[in-house]
Design goal:
There is one protein chain. The protein is α/β, with parallel strands linked by helices and about 425 residues long. Helices cover about 50% and strands about 15% of the residues. Helix 11 links the parallel strand 6 and strand 7. Helix 9 runs parallel beside helix 11. It is globular and about 65 Å long. The model has no long low-confidence stretch (mean pLDDT about 90).
């Protein structure tokens, strides 16, 4: 089965080769490390914990966990890997000096074994159900303990895994512990084939969101540069996907566009230039965060935040945050960071990726969710209505934000404590 998996992975790699050539910066970044080459790592007397994230979301979620691992387990070194370039850039920004940051190896025997031989981890932590069969199998052969941390498994992913249940269950047999976000996630991973005795529900680590000193400084820098004030409240449209930027801009037409300002933050960096072109086709004045500061920054109707890792610091400046990926059938992006800042949050109807979170927030009056529009022409209209209602009702904005922040505090502390307790049990059994 593993041989067949390797063949399929090779075919997929060959099909991706044109992308490696055409978009080298994104897909070929860290290529040598992805082949398992890490000559710069030098061992000492400490054991190694390898924490694998995927991209920006998982890397951000790992921030409190990383701090606790370093504080509670000083006899261990920390290696942090990411799959994407954006995740790598953020991990280096956040964790340089705290951990050794690398690209995750391609899931072939030679690259995985080369990386494992170099780092020799005693414990591997995989954020959010990152199942890489060869890596998990070979890490287990080295004697490492392996745990899924902050695990989640959507209904869509469950369907895919069930088609390959005989293989996936063999992979999951090498997992020592699966720490899942909620009961539904735990039920799904058990259905795929993991031993129920290895599964625990710990809550969602993303609920623990504490701004760092650098976040606070960056917030003030952004406030000064773009002259953010209550005179013209700021709406942030966060982690947007195509064509959500157009929906949000159309929602500004008329009265709303004159009474507030907008910060657009596309989810994927490769779309920054396309969104800038879209803004140029509108009647609104706009500036880009990546451009040199200018007098235009203070009065621009729309700010394009075309940088990596700064959205978290921008949230404190907003009165309202719309979270993207939710006006289209993508499944939504996380609402937890703006919730931690006590912001009034709006999301669209498509939130399958975070169903349990949205349900909790709705039950606690901590988020506004728009209803499904009968056609595309009504999407902006629904968004406009929710923006206007919140801008006109200060008390409701504050109530939504306060409820969101309170829910985050309660849930985050508990998830963090449970996760560390389970990790401690693995470390003490080494």
């Amino acid at each position: 089965m593993y041989f067949l998996y390797s063949i399929l992975l090779l075919i997929g790699f060959l099909l991706m080769l044109p992308m490696f050539v055409l978009r080298r910066e994104k897909y070929a970044s860290g290529f040598s490390q992805r082949l398992g080459n890490h000559v710069e790592f030098k061992h000492d007397d400490r054991s190694v914990i390898w924490l694998h994230c995927v991209s920006v979301g998982e890397t951000n979620a790992a921030r409190p966990l990383v701090d606790k691992l370093l504080d509670i387990f000083p006899a261990h070194r920390l290696v942090i890997s990411t799959t994407t370039k954006t995740g790598q850039d953020l991990a280096r920004k956040l964790f340089t000096g705290k951990a050794h940051v690398i690209y995750f190896p391609f899931d072939w025997k030679f690259s995985v074994r080369r990386a494992l031989s170099n780092f020799r981890p005693s414990l591997v932590l995989l954020m959010e159900t990152e199942i890489w069969p060869r890596f998990i199998h070979d890490a287990k052969l080295t004697g490492a303990k392996i745990a899924i941390v902050n695990g989640r498994l959507s209904e869509r992913s469950l369907g895919r895994y069930l088609h390959l249940k005989s293989f996936v269950s063999r992979v999951l047999a090498d997992i020592d512990l699966a720490l899942m976000q909620n009961e539904a996630d735990a039920k799904r991973i058990i259905e795929v084939g993991i031993d129920p005795s290895k599964v625990a529900v710990t809550g969602n680590l993303k609920f623990e969101q504490t701004p760092t000193e650098s976040d606070i400084k960056l917030s003030e820098e952004l406030r000064r540069r773009f002259a953010i004030s209550s005179d013209k409240p700021l709406i942030i449209a966060a982690s947007t996907h195509e064509p959500e930027e157009r929906y949000v801009i159309d929602a500004l037409d008329g009265e709303l566009g004159h009474s507030c300002r907008l910060m657009l933050v596309p989810r994927h960096p490769e779309r920054f230039d396309d969104v800038a072109k879209l803004l140029s086709s509108t009647s609104y004045s706009h500036v880009r965060r990546s451009s040199l500061p200018s007098a235009a920054d203070a009065g621009a109707d729309i700010i394009l935040l075309d940088t990596i890792g700064e959205l978290r610091a921008a949230y404190p400046l907003a009165e309202i945050v719309f979270v993207g990926g939710s006006l289209i059938p993508h499944g939504g992006q996380s609402i937890l960071e703006p919730a931690a800042e006590g912001k009034a949050i709006i999301t669209g109807p498509h939130t399958a990726n975070f169903d349990s979170v949205i349900k909790d927030f709705l039950e606690n009056e901590a988020v506004v969710q728009t209803s499904k529009a009968p056609d595309d022409s009504k999407i902006s209209e629904r968004l406009y209505e929710e923006f206007m209602l919140l801008l006109e009702d200060t008390n409701r904005r504050r109530r939504l934000g306060n409820n969101a922040a309170a829910l985050i505090r309660r849930s985050g502390q508990e998830a963090s404590r449970r996760t560390i307790d389970h990790i401690r049990s693995l470390i003490t059994s080494e």
